[in-house]
C-alpha cells in the first residue's frame, strides 16, 4: 500500500490550485516554526519546504535555537499569525524538552492552522464537523479510500492516542461508521485486540517497546504503519513488514507509505487556508 501513487495526484491538484490562486493575486504561503536541532525534525521540515516549492507555494522558515523560551516561541507564532501574507502556520513537533506546545498552537488562528491542532479545529473534528484536519490522519484516510478499504461497520484498531495522530484518526473513522478501538501504553491484551481487527493503524515509533508481528494480525487484515524509527541504522515502522505481509491483505511500507501522504495533505490544507482567506475553521 504505497503512498506515492496516492500523494502524487494530490500534489498535482495542489499545484494547479496554487497557480489559480496566484493568477487571482493570492500567493499561497506556508510558514514553519522549527525549534531546536533535532535532525529528524529538520529533515521533515526540509521535505515540507521542498514540496511547497514544487507545488508553487511560498514558504517562510522560522528557526529558533534549542534554548528558546516559551515566550520566544509564542512571539514567533504571533508575528506570523498577524502577517496577512502568511496563510498557513505549522509548529514542528515535538518541541525541545521543557517547552509546552499548547500555548503556541493556541496562538495560531484556526483559519491558518494547517496542522488542524488548535483547540477550535480539534474541537470541530471531535464533534464531527471537520474543518482543517491534521495531515497524517487525513493522509491515512485518503490512502484507505484510494486502496478501496471499507471501514463502515469494520473493527479498526489505532495504536496511538496523541492529538497529532490517534485522536483525530478516531474521530475521522467514527465519521465513517467504523467501530474504533484506541490502544496505548496502558492497554491490556493489545495482541488479541489487533488480531480481531479488520484494520490496524499503528503509530508507536519505538521498536524497543513495540513491534507489530504476524501473531497480532488476522488473515486478510489491512495494516497501516504510521511510525518512523530506526532498526539497525535503517528506517522502519512499527510493523515487521516481511512477516506481516504474508498474512495481511495490505500493509503500508516504511518508508514510502504514509510519509508522502502527510506532506501532500499539508499542501492541500495550505491551499484550503489560502483560498478561504481567513474563513477556514470558522463555523
Ligand atoms: N511532527 C511529526 N509529524 C508532525 C506533523 O504532522 N505536524 C507537526 N507540526 N509536527 C509533526
List keywords for this structure.
binds guanine; five-stranded parallel β-sheet; three-stranded parallel β-sheet; Rossmann fold; 10 strands; alpha/beta; 2 domains; 283 residues; 16% strand
Fold and architecture overview:
The protein folds into two domains: 22-109, 3-Layer(aba) Sandwich (Rossmann fold), CATH 3.40.50.10860; 135-259, 3-Layer(aba) Sandwich (Rossmann fold). 40% of the residues lie in helices and 16% in strands. The protein has helices at 4-23, 39-55, 70-81, 102-106, 119-126, 135-146, 166-175, 190-195, 241-244, 259-276, and strands at 29-35, 58-64, 88-91, 155-159, 179-183, 199-202, 222-225, 229-231, 234-236, 250-251. α2 links the parallel β1 (29-35) and β2 (58-64). The relative contact order is 0.17. Bound molecules: guanine. Guanine binds next to β3 and α6.
In short:
The chain is α/β, with parallel strands linked by helices and 283 residues long. The protein contains ten helices and ten strands. The strands form three sheets. Strands 5-4-6-7-10 form a five-stranded parallel beta sheet. Strands 2-1-3 form a three-stranded parallel beta sheet, sandwiched between helices.
Amino acid at each position: 500500500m504505497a503512498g506515492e501513487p496516492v500523494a502524487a495526484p494530490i500534489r498535482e491538484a495542489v499545484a494547479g490550485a496554487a497557480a489559480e490562486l496566484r493568477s487571482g493575486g493570492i500567493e499561497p504561503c506556508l510558514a514553519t516554526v522549527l525549534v531546536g536541532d533535532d535532525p529528524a525534525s529538520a529533515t521533515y521540515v526540509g521535505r515540507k519546504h521542498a514540496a511547497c516549492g514544487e507545488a508553487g507555494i511560498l514558504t517562510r522558515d522560522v528557526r529558533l535555537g534549542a534554548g528558546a523560551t516559551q515566550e520566544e516561541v509564542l512571539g514567533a507564532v504571533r508575528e506570523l499569525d498577524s502577517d496577512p501574507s502568511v496563510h498557513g502556520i505549522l509548529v514542528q513537533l515535538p518541541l525541545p524538552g521543557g517547552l509546552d506546545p499548547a500555548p503556541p498552537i493556541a496562538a495560531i488562528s484556526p483559519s491558518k492552522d494547517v496542522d488542524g491542532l488548535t483547540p477550535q479545529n480539534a474541537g470541530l473534528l471531535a464533534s464531527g464537523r471537520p474543518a482543517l484536519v491534521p495531515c497524517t490522519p487525513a493522509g491515512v484516510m485518503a490512502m484507505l479510500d484510494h486502496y478501496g478499504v471499507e471501514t463502515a461497520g469494520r473493527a479498526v484498531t489505532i495504536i496511538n492516542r496523541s492529538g497529532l495522530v490517534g485522536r483525530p484518526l478516531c474521530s475521522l473513522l467514527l465519521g465513517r461508521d467504523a467501530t474504533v478501538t484506541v490502544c496505548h501504553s496502558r492497554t491490556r491484551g493489545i495482541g488479541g485486540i489487533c488480531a480481531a481487527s479488520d484494520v490496524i493503524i499503528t503509530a508507536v515509533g519505538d521498536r524497543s517497546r513495540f513491534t507489530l508481528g504476524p501473531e497480532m494480525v488476522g488473515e486478510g487484515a489491512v495494516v497501516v504503519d504510521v511510525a518512523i524509527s530506526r532498526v539497525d541504522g535503517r528506517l522502519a515502522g512499527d510493523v515487521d513488514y516481511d512477516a506481516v505481509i504474508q498474512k495481511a491483505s495490505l500493509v503500508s511500507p516504511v518508508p514510502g507509505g504514509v510519509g508522502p501522504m502527510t506532506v501532500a495533505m499539508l499542501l492541500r490544507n495550505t491551499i484550503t487556508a489560502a483560498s478561504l482567506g481567513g474563513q477556514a475553521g470558522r463555523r
